[in-house]
């Protein structure tokens, strides 16, 4: 299995509901350094897992809808704790949609799995990974 | 699959027996930066893999029994080379015991796999990972 | 010149005023990984720049007043853009106050300079450093 | 499953053919920080996944054939884009050959899988991983 | 003294002349992760050392003239070993030119010193730093 | 001012005397990742601060006398707490001796300052830096 991973980041505000969150129930924020790993069993004719330029652009486009925002006010997340692990899944789903829409090129439809990993500090990270339906579909 | 990972560290002394270890047969030591990754296929009702506060406390408790010690004198490791990979397993087993004992809360019993990774320097690390019995039991 | 540095982190929300900030004028947030470096020309009788345990506790105490907060609502920062470089200075001043108050022990009054460095992502950081008055005074 | 990973690096020149590569069609270069992870389900009698000294020596030997070279002029890669993911596979194959040849010792033939990860910058990496035939054979 | 630092990278090919360079006399290459630190004794009215957006754009513009190139063929470097420390100085000079030309805004002319640090691998880096003439001039 | 820095590491055992050290009074150990930064105002005729190959070899030679040892039993450190900051100074002194003895070549006698930084974990480091006498002398 081959992998290619690209990195970018977002800076967001949010708060959590539930006693388990302690002081994180207050409005606070985070920098998430976001790694998206694309996997496939064979390389394309150019010797690539994915066009790394398109992958970076697509990741930036997906992150732009979250970046510099208060996630408590985003309609998509109403009533939801936007934990690091939850956001990893959100970004996963949106990257898969982009692949299905062709944003990473036709060859990228051969990607079989994706892992999205969000580092929230030097001591904690969360991730979501899954195989993709084939060909990738929204 | 979702993951959450927390990081802490220990500073220990030990020595190894066997010619394969060369100069590491002498009494020396290591800082191990310890990453414990918890995995489960679905989030709990709070949107969590695990209560990250409890996970950090539990990791600290497990590591406290090893930290600032000469492992050559620990009864639990008599006759055993405490290699990095061996210690990854020791920490794995003790974290699993803590989950079974409820230290990470009832929801944490849904954790299906754990990976423990010990970085011993900027050029080497070792890990142990395994699926857990369900529900997690000591 | 000797140095010792300890690391911790905070997760805060804030917004900036001024067109220069672009999308960062919206309420957003950041994880700041905070490094505080203590400098002095000679070691104390124990062979230390500073008691690293006290240094870590003091840094945590200073950061606790900022952690998991919306800095836009902190009275201390009214009318102020809480940029990364500004926050580095805030933490510097508060650490110096703690030294003067004896929180790092009597020997720590020999510290001659401090540098506070805040990493806001994998691609940007800011810092404030200065010599201290002697003996360190608030 | 146990893992041990060792790290080294190479500094190479190359160019790519195909419009997808944009400016990387020009002769340029890269530092690849190379992580090779060895996996096996049980430790050997010494408590090891692999003799880390032999693993490091073997990795250096494999990398020496690539290091400080223009890969466009290497006969082994004629007509091939030496992308990061392609090189991960090349290094994987050569490490497997070394195991089969006994370079990592007899016990290393119990290794069941290897992952080779090449970091090309602070924002991108690629990898190749696979189970090994048993016993490992070239 | 305040600092702000931004990071980007380049991927170049080059070779060195002189026996001291050993195998690096062959055509090879490097990824340089480039950190540019801007220093000034007081913040501007917005609470900034420098507009981090302009700083990042300026760094990218400066690096674009080097990126994805064989430095042996660049007229600017004829007869020169483009060592890491030499390139740190080149980037320093070009960033200073940009400040003088106003690329970082009028307030950036208060910057009093710059440090450019190039990491060439996980085990080696080089840097060039200097005070600037005031106001910054090419 | 130009800098070049090389990195290596040691794994040692030791204990500390004095109540300030708490549990670190017990025999324990550490991995120290060691960065040695060489500084000089102008490059040598090859465009170098120092021959990076000789610098790495010299650092390894200096570290070999400490590596895989119990520092409590080293005659050189009797009655001394081998704190991280103390060891930074020890390595500094020994590197300066090597420069004076010619181990880094004649050109290296133009080095004007050195900084030795020891990272003991992901959350703490210590350093010693100083200008050198000229020409460098033991």
Report on this model:
Six copies of one chain form a homohexamer. Chain A has 138 residues and is an alpha+beta fold. In chain A, 22% of the residues lie in helices and 31% in strands. Chain A is built from two helices and four strands; from the N terminus they run ββααββ. The first copy, chain A, has helices spanning 52-64, 84-100; strands spanning 2-14, 28-40, 113-121, 124-131. In chain A, strands 1-2-3-4 form a four-stranded antiparallel β-sheet, covered by helices on one side. The longest helix of chain A is centred in the middle third of the chain and has 17 residues, at 84-100. The two termini of chain A are 23 Å apart. The model of chain A has no long low-confidence stretch (mean pLDDT 95). The interface between A and C is medium-sized, with 24 and 24 residues.
Please report which band the strand proportion of chain A falls in: under 5%, 5-15%, 15-25%, 25-35%, 35-45% or over 45%: 25-35%
Taking the alpha carbons of the first and last residues of chain A, their distance comes to 23 Å
Order of helices and strands of chain A: EEHHEE
Would you report the number of β strands of chain A? 4
């Amino acid at each position: 299995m081959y992998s290619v991973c690209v990195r970018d980041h977002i800076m967001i505000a949010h708060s959590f509901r539930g006693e388990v969150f302690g002081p994180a129930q207050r409005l606070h924020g985070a920098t998430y350094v976001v790694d998206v790993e694309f996997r496939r069993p064979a390389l394309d004719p150019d010797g690539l897992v994915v066009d790394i330029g398109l992958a970076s652009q697509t990741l930036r486009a997906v992150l732009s809808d979250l970046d510099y925002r208060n996630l408590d006010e985003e309609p998509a997340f109403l009533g939801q704790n936007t934990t690091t692990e939850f956001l990893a899944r959100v970004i996963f789903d949106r990257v898969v949609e982009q692949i299905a829409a062709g944003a990473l090129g036709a060859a990228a439809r051969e990607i079989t799995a994706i892992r999205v990993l969000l580092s929230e500090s030097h001591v904690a990270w969360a991730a979501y990974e899954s195989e993709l339906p084939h060909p990738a579909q929204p």
